[in-house]
Amino acid sequence: MEPVTAQKRALGFLTRILDSGRIPNSLLFTGDPGLGKRRAAVAFAMAANCENPPAAVGEPLFGAHGPCESCPSCKKIRSASHPDVFVVERSGAFVRIGQVRALLDALGLARHSARTRVAIFPEAAALNREAANALLKAVEEPPENTLFILIAPEASGLLPTLVSRSQEIRFTPLPEGVIRRWIQEQMPGTSVQAAALAVLSRGSLERARELSEGQGLSRRDFLADALAALPQKGPSAALALAEILAADKAQAARDLEWILLWQRDLLMARAAPARLTNADRAGEILSLARSVSTDKLLADMAAVLSCERDLACYNVNPRMALESLFLQLAKMENG
């Protein structure tokens, strides 16, 4: 199953738009990266211009409205070669005024074959102020039968007046099962590891891709080995680990997410070992869990949560916050 099909609520909203026969001037797709927003935008452009009648369609994203994905129009849109469907990528750090002006010049010409021309901005938050203001004028007075689709993580990252002229559709994190199946398809033979990666992905296909193609499991294994050794190696190892993680605050935030999952697994091991996130390290987790009390595990989890909050919400020194955390995790049961 393609991950975007799991976006039932967003796809249902888009289907109702097609049902009504009244396509708005501007749609805003919001949500974290890797949730299927761009795929849905392209699919909606295909559905709005599909040449096949509903009866000829199998089980498309938008019910009887298609897209069929096999007619000439659908094929051209999918291959980014349709003359009436535009995708405006950013140039460097921004989407610039010149790109918007070029788009508006193209939209000022007669349509080639589409019923609805579509302009997709995959990174609308990258619109600089001049470009955003130029686009706003077009959204307020759009060319006939033209739809603008803006894609951004949050509406707050866009010009407020541009947001107010758009219908927002929120995309939500994908279910862990969808992410896990995608990882297994991309990396055959990794079913056990896929469960851990799916949890770490937090519902984002993009993050799942980064973890599965990058060093997601090796980073996890490094942290697992380091945490397991802390009680034996003591404060010096805790301070050294804090120094490593503090070098990259963004990575440290991701590491803390996994550390919390590791602590959860230790807590769950005795009661529900079949539900471990890091099931491929089940033997080690079960052994460690027998050597530490529930009170100690709960105190450790509270320390991780406190460190996460401090790094995310307060202007604290990352190294000092991490040192405090790992000194807590390194404490022996009687210490």
Characteristics:
335 residues, alpha/beta, Rossmann fold, Zinc Finger, Delta Prime, domain 3, five-stranded parallel beta sheet, 5 strands, 54% helix, elongated
Describe the protein in words.
With 335 residues, the protein is an alpha/beta fold. It folds into two domains: 3-170, P-loop containing nucleotide triphosphate hydrolases (Rossmann fold); 215-330, Up-down Bundle (Zinc Finger, Delta Prime, domain 3). The chain is 54% helix and 7% strand. The chain contains 15 helices and five strands. The protein has helices at residues 8-20, 37-49, 72-78, 97-107, 129-140, 160-164, 176-186, 191-200, 205-213, 216-233, 235-246, 249-268, 282-289, 294-313, 318-330; strands at residues 26-30, 85-87, 117-121, 146-152, 167-170. The chain has a five-stranded parallel sheet, covered by helices on one side. Strand 2 (85-87), helix 4 and strand 3 (117-121) form a beta-alpha-beta unit. The chain is elongated, with a radius of gyration of 25 Å. The N and C termini lie far apart (51 Å).
Question: Can you describe this structure in just a few lines?
Answer:
The chain is of the alpha/beta class and 335 residues long. The chain has helices at residues 8-20, 37-49, 72-78, 97-107, 129-140, 160-164, 176-186, 191-200, 205-213, 216-233, 235-246, 249-268, 282-289, 294-313, 318-330, and strands at 26-30, 85-87, 117-121, 146-152, 167-170. The chain has two domains: 3-170, Rossmann fold (3-Layer(aba) Sandwich), CATH 3.40.50.300; 215-330, Up-down Bundle (Zinc Finger, Delta Prime, domain 3), CATH 1.20.272.
